[in-house]
Amino acid sequence: MSGSRARLGTITTAHGVIDTPIFMPVGTLGTVKAISVEELDHCKAQIILGNTYHLYLRPGCDVIKHMEGLHEFIRWEKPMLTDSGGFQFFSLAKLAKFSDEGVAFQSHIDGSRHFFSPEKAVEIQMILGADIMMSLDFCMGHPASEKQTMDAVNKTFMWAKRGFDFWQAKGSVNNLFGIIQGGMTKKMRSLSAEQLTGIDFPGFAIGGLSVGEPKDLMYEMADHTIPLMPVHKPRYIMGVGTPEDLVELVDMGCDMFDCVMPSRNARNGQLFTSMGTINISNARFRFDKEPIDEECDCYTCQNYSRSYLRHLYKSRELLAYRLNTIHNIYYYLDLMDKMRNAIKKDRFLEFKKNFYSKRK
Fold it and tell me: How far is it, in rounded angstroms, from Cα 79 to Cα 129?
């Protein structure tokens, strides 16, 4: 790709082929909040994400195993990725205790005590039936000391090796990705990348970004780390981000993304458009007959006005969350589709320039 590291790829799974670069809507508890799997299909979703920690606690592995896996349970026929729970242990740190063996934690639901080893994290994901599973990692916030960062890098590597060995012993079911950590220093990111890529994972992710650091530092760490990942394997940046983040990180050579932003922001009335972000509760939309985005082909934009969507949101009608979420998810996935087409035509930098020129 001339002038850019943006690239096209495919990931083959038991539930279908994924064209990259791709955004994965987050369905933490087996649902992308407010919308159905049929609506996800309309939005052109190729793959969705579920969370091992949350699904383990509720409804529980016994339920999902009885229901013949997460795909059957939620009636989603396409690929699915599950996180290992590492980020949840970071965000719920007051309820978790870390050791070389794994993570002992209390449920945020009922206070019951549990333990995740790297092997158990993989085993649970096998029960869920994920097409892409993630190894257990040690995630940190920002700022962090050098000692804390080194400890996170060492634990992540140790856990990754154990999880990988367990996965191989169980027949290498589906795909298991390793997660690169290293905080906000290039030295530690390089060390973690060297350690993790020494293990023959089918793909690799960058974790520990968007944890409180300034945007330019996040980009600096991503730009440094992405080239350290194998060229012929998927590159996944976890938990990032805004439409601008997706464009910048695709330019750097990343293939996969997930973030709760499109669905969470939809529930808060913030809608993404080709012209920038709008807040549908704004008084200027009270009499507005136009759709959210005239360039958008989603169900919401093809059928409803800004005025009506504002009314629903201000009235706290449940339909507001559904229609807003349909639009935001569609916008994100359509943005990825446009980027893939631009890369295919070797016009990504032109696309990027046009993307920014429209935004207010």
Answer: 10
